[in-house]
# Entry
Amino acid sequence: MLRLLNLELQKLLLNKTSKVLIFVSFILPFTVLILSSIKINFFGFFTLELGELGIFNFPIIWHITTFFASQFKFFFAIVVVSMIGNEYSNKTIKQNLIDGLSKKEFILSKFYTIVFFSLIATVLIALASFFIGLYYSSYTEASIIFRETNFLIAYFVKLVGFFSLCLFFGMLVKRSAFALAFLFILYIFEYIVLGLITWQSNYELAEKIQNFFPLKSMYKLIDQPFQRIMMTKFPDKTDLAYDYAVHWYELAIVIGWIALFVFLSYKILKKRDL
Amino acid sequence: MESILTINNLTKKFGALTAVKDLSFTIKKGNVYGILGPNGSGKSTTLGIVLNVVNKTQGDFKWFDGTISTHNALKKVGAIIERPNFYPYMTAEQNLKLVCKIKGVAYSKIEEKLKIVGLEDRKNHKFSTYSLGMKQRLAIASALLNDPEILILDEPTNGLDPQGIHQIRQIIKDIAASGTTILLASHLLDEVEKVCSHVVVLRKGEKLYSGRVDEMISSHGFFELKADKQEDLIQLLESNTTFKNIKVENGLITAFLNAPMDATSFNKLMFEKGIILSHLVKRKESLEEQFLQLTDNLN
# Structure
């Protein structure tokens, strides 16, 4: 396993473009955190300090940071599709197989890399949230701090899920740009199906079905936190209440997709004449 | 002798096209094999199948004694097919390190193999800055990294300039001289003739011949002759049953033998008949002539 990971890391880290993109994908989520902790002074009238709004309180901070950080997953997605696309355009995939890598090992080396980077991203965001939380949060008891850390698990699964989807599209169309286009098409397609089912029956059922789709199921892992922030500000407005927790079945759906995407990527490679 | 690769009734179809048809042959250790055939005769497809990049339709093949999986067997094989494929943004050394990681070979081999192909001065230059000849030599170094049991080369001199062709041929000859089994696919017959002891001849995916180069067609060779009394000579040859046919081209007479006869006894015979030869050469058909004869016979 380490051999395969090591192999792929060499391919990625010696490539300038991927190195920059990997760096950016790790750094960008933090700039948001730094920006949001800056005090904004509105010409001396009043000071808006995001840290004082309570969004950096434990345990809500886990929810907020993972939600925002996951918006930046697109940068590493480019790395994932290009690491497949480049192997095809340089024909190095062929040479790798001739040199004695099996097709299974080839897919696994890509998948391990995805898991590895998702893990690093999760650990980084966990550490950052933990320290920012300690600094701003009004509650610092261990039981509160570590409540809702399952958002970190959700974040990790979400990243692995999204990148596995990229891996699958990369293997399917062999070209980076087309693979990214496919992602966009899938996004639109999921909403078209949502619309069609709503039209045929009702929105509630349509949404339930849509929650099983790849992109929507990944999105559902970490629901938007804005409503929850509002809830904390206006606790008596009961109509704002919604289910934002991370559920086991949401994780199960995405893990199911991950297994399917990796398996299909392998099947595609196995069937293909290079 | 130990067999390295055994192919049994291998067939590959691309849709309606049959690229390889019921092909069987065995590669034995220590020989230098050539796979001959015009473009599109299924050479590269056959190599692609045994190298795990093309899926077979029918039949089977086994590496060594058949007890290890194909991808593990390939770690003991060195192969280059068509174009050299490397990561353009990595240097030669980095590319070879990657191959070492795949094959499970120590990095210490890199220096040694780069020396063989004469690229040690350029090892820290990016692959994208290399000329085609250098790329091809790097590919050979890469294929040699694991000290392979067999070296497979598919059209190694394709697209190179005369100097590059000469360099690659010299490297191949040196490797062959060291006792490594080589499988060389080419449509350039003189290339194969210079290095190979055995050939497999393919046409349209079918095997026409496999065996030693010198046994490819049953021939006793031919004489190339010149004499002042040309008319008498031709008459004499035509009356002799040892010769099957006689060709005259630009005053040079070519007489094909029906039965074995050496140049000395032929010369003596002519002298006794009162014909003095001004030119006498006994030759065997070149591989090209044999190949054309073999493929023509089946037309």
Q: What stands out?
A: The mean pLDDT of chain A is 87. Chain A has one domain: 2-271. Chain A is about 75% helix and 5% strand.
